[in-house]
Write a structure and sequence with these properties.
heterodimer; B: 50% strand
């Protein structure tokens, strides 16, 4: 069965360091992968989308990589700030190019001042 | 302001009662979605609609119903047949040219 794995343990880092979150998937070749940010009690907010033919995408302090051979995406936040503390969800197209992503459980990031 | 709204933010109901959650968007998006989120869980798709007067079941549609009479509105009814209705419900929308989903603020439903 298709599966999306994100680390269930919270990631704790010091302010100014680079945070790296992982999203692994199995049994499918998604056309795209997305990353969202979710704050407690609020709806997710879209951050970045990377397509299967792209290796890397950047937006300000954010960088996403997509390795279709390893079936893995890495999400990096450089120069992290306490305001970056949130849960980060990855979402994949598991239905062959549709616009309905399947979401992972998310990883909580805590940036300490 | 363009966006997607959900109301109410908190909702309490007695067991056995149906309840309807509102979702409205002014983004002119064709597609709308309903998700359920439980603590420590990912978002699970309940229903989605790609066009007015049409909708499809998602992964966990049992005990829920929807309607799509207007492009802007996609209300979700949680029926008494839903065995574990207490959860955080999220509505989202997207346009046909983008895979990006825009989410509402969510409704937290508690069934007593």
């Amino acid at each position: 069965s298709q599966k999306i794995e994100q680390n269930s343990e919270a990631l704790n880092i010091q302010e100014g360091k680079t945070a790296t979150l992982t999203c692994n998937y199995t049994n499918y070749s998604p056309a795209y992968l997305q990353w969202y940010r979710q704050d407690p009690g609020r709806g997710p907010v879209f951050l970045l989308l990377i397509r299967e033919n792209e290796k890397e995408k950047r937006k300000e302090r954010l960088k996403v990589t997509f390795d279709t051979t390893l079936k893995q995406s890495l999400f990096h936040i450089t120069a992290s700030q306490p305001a970056d503390s949130a849960t980060y969800l990855c979402a994949l197209d598991l239905t062959g190019g549709s616009y309905i992503p399947t979401f992972g459980r998310g990883t909580s990031l805590i940036v300490h001042p | 302001d363009g966006g997607i709204t959900q109301s109410p933010k908190y909702l309490f109901r007695k067991e056995g009662q149906n309840v309807t959650l509102s979702c409205e968007q002014n983004l002119n998006h064709d597609a709308m979605y309903w998700y359920r989120q439980d603590p420590g869980q990912g978002l699970r798709l309940i229903y989605y609609s790609q066009i007015v007067n049409d909708f499809q079941k998602g992964d966990i549609a049992e005990g829920y119903s929807v309607s799509r009479e207007k492009k802007e509105s996609f209300p979700l009814t949680v029926t008494s047949a839903q065995k574990n209705p207490t959860a955080f419900y999220l509505c989202a929308s997207s346009n046909e040219h983008s895979n990006e989903q825009f989410f509402g603020p969510g409704t937290r439903l508690t069934v007593l």
